[in-house]
Amino acid sequence: MDIADATFVVTDLETTGTTPDDDRIMEIGAVKVRDGAVVDRFQQLVNPQQSVPGRITKMTGITTGMVFEAPPADEVLPDYRAFLGDGILVAHNVSFDGSFLDAELQRMGDETLPNETLCTVRLARRLLPGLDSKGLSRLAQFYDIDVEGRHRALGDAEATSVVLRRFVSQLAFEHEVETVEALLRFQHQSYQTVREVPGHIESIRDEVLPDVPDEPGVYVMKNRSGTPLYIGKAKRLPDRLRSHFTAVESSGARKRKMLQKVRSVDWTTTATELEAILLESRRIKAEKPRYNRAQRRYYNRPFIRLDTAHEYPTVSWTRRLEADGAEYYGPVRNTEQAEMVVDVVGRFFQLRECDDERLHLGQRCLYADMDRCTVPCETKDAEAYATVVERVRAFLTGQDQSVLGTMWDRMQRASDNLNFEKAAELRDTLEQLERILEKQRVAAAPVRQHNAALVHQAPDRAGRVDVMLVRFGRFEESIACAAPPSPEERDSLLERCRSVFDVEADPPETFSKRDATEIRLLSHWVYAHRDELTAVRWTPRTSPADLADAIAGRVQGQPQQSA
DNA sequence: CATCTAATGTAGCGAACTGG
DNA sequence: CCAGTTCGCTACATTAGATG
């Protein structure tokens, strides 16, 4: 039914209290509205058959004396029912008025009201979410409605009918609500499907975002009680944050749910993006915000292990980084990749694949006959074996690309021989391997011996250079400076190099899960920016001053021998 | 394959408002 | 004060996935 054809009976009751079972109706007021116009009015005092409490008289002005001579409910209600007809019962908090009407009808032994009901409080909550109060007084003030006899039944009913008309027109304009059915449904819709851009989002957009510094960093969105909802990192905080708070309507359900709860945004600036990535990772794992799905826990990624503590080293993979004299490379993505690397090394390099017992017993195994081993068990030729190890090292650090070349040839041959299945398999392996080795190439050292300053010049940040200091494979600190660096920046660079690259410093005993995760994040970032990066390597023979000079040289863009 | 952890879904309770 | 509604939070159960 069209809203214009419907009859609304806007009703207000004055009662002696708030409990329908114990308290009674003492006045009924109602206005009949059709097509936006008041067509009829109803007003009647009712004898509640009990005295009117003082606080109620104070609020409504209705005294026990006034209702003493009025007819009781069982005489008034039939008249009201006739007035109501099959119109829609409208009230401000209709469950209140409805339950009093039903309670009186029950006392009379009459049927309760079958009419549809419409609640203007429910509409107000959905249509005016930003308003501080949805009480009738506040709405009257908001719409500038003159109420003749506030807290008298007819006065409040008149005011409510004006509010109703405002709501109906707002619903037509903003929510395409044209029919009575849609109108009645709307009052039961959940807030979030109704609300547009909530007020608190607007205030964050307008008041918080202008103060965000143009730097990399980590931001935290918090709810009303300060609990973190989401932690994120940004290359540039203002850009990232703005993207969260604009086009809110088009975002997915999960994000809308979060934005509904956000009341404040906090941030920590960092010198560089990489530092922000690492800080973000730590904070997500420590605080586990509800809306962060990724990076909630530390994973034990596999590392490739070259057991150089052994006289005749072997290659294997492990999820633990120990201080056992072995060289560790990686990490790689998963078990499958780790096994693939170990397998490729086994097939292309003549390392032994026997266990120590067999080695010492000098038991030649089938790998010797396959020419996959230098057979140290028989020859005891440590020197020949060491050259193989050196070649494996060159392969694992991404320096020796010949294996990739060989694999490429084999793939071509398989393809030429119409063995496409094998060719495809080789292609997949090759692609993964290239990625893994490319990550190693920049570090060019096993994890523990990765000591370097990474100089990053982002193309979209002219005049600015980031320097990352890596010691024992772990990110230590980063410095952002101008290109070329000012004298002060050079001094501070030297100072940082001194503290990070202390020759006396002992390598860490073990690497924690956190270290392993951060090594992965570091290698990932390095890989992603490999074309914009130069690495200045540090060895125990490099003095901090030389290192700082070499870094400064790269910052100015003059290629220099690595230190 | 058994076990444990993390992610996701659900129920229930408290807080905040509305009416006289 | 009471009753009703809704949201946010907590606790708990269920499910999916990782681990050894």
From TrEMBL:
One of its GO terms (cellular component) is excinuclease repair complex. One of its GO terms (molecular function) is DNA-directed DNA polymerase activity. PROSITE patterns: GIY_YIG (PS50164), UVR (PS50151). DNA polymerase III is a complex, multichain enzyme responsible for most of the replicative synthesis in bacteria. The epsilon subunit contain the editing function and is a proofreading 3'-5' exonuclease. Residues 401-436 form the UVR domain. The gene is dnaQ. DNA polymerase III contains a core (composed of alpha, epsilon and theta chains) that associates with a tau subunit. This core dimerizes to form the POLIII' complex. PolIII' associates with the gamma complex (composed of gamma, delta, delta', psi and chi chains) and with the beta chain to form the complete DNA polymerase III complex. Residues 214-293 form the GIY-YIG domain. The keyword DNA damage applies. Keywords: DNA damage, SOS response. This is DNA polymerase III epsilon subunit. It holds the Pfam family GIY-YIG. Coiled coil: none annotated. The lineage of its organism: Bacteria, Pseudomonadati, Rhodothermota, Rhodothermia, Rhodothermales. One of its GO terms (biological process) is DNA replication. It comes from the Bacteria. InterPro entries: DnaQ, GIY-YIG_endonuc, GIY-YIG_endonuc_sf, GIY-YIG_UvrC_Cho, Ribonucl_H, RNaseH-like_sf, RNaseH_sf, UVR_dom.
